[in-house]
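Sequence only, no structure available. Ideas?
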Amino acid sequence: MIKIEAIIRSSKFSELQETLAKINVPTFSSYQVHISGIHKVHEGWRNKTSDLIPKVKVEILCTDENEEKIVEAIQKATTTGEKGDGVIFTYNIDKLVKIRNGVSGIEAL
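Reply:
I predicted one. Tokens follow.
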């Protein structure tokens, strides 16, 4: 099992939601987050901390087989080609258990 996390532009969230529904990913979590970073400024090319920028973090659990399809869908739905489009992370999940009934593993997805 895989956990996919994506931090995307807030303006692309609706498009991502529609894209995920089209590829049969109806369930995911989303959070409003703020990120900051370091960037170079023109006057003297020194590093400067940027202001906090609002983004959306999306978390999806899926089977190993669906990982690439979902990652590609996220990238296609959220890219603008500009700096600040976001990032996608994937993690292996060792165990997943539904609290309500104790179902675990793939069946719990």
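The beta strands are 2-9, 29-35, 38-40, 47-49, 53-62, 86-92.
Hope that gets you unstuck.
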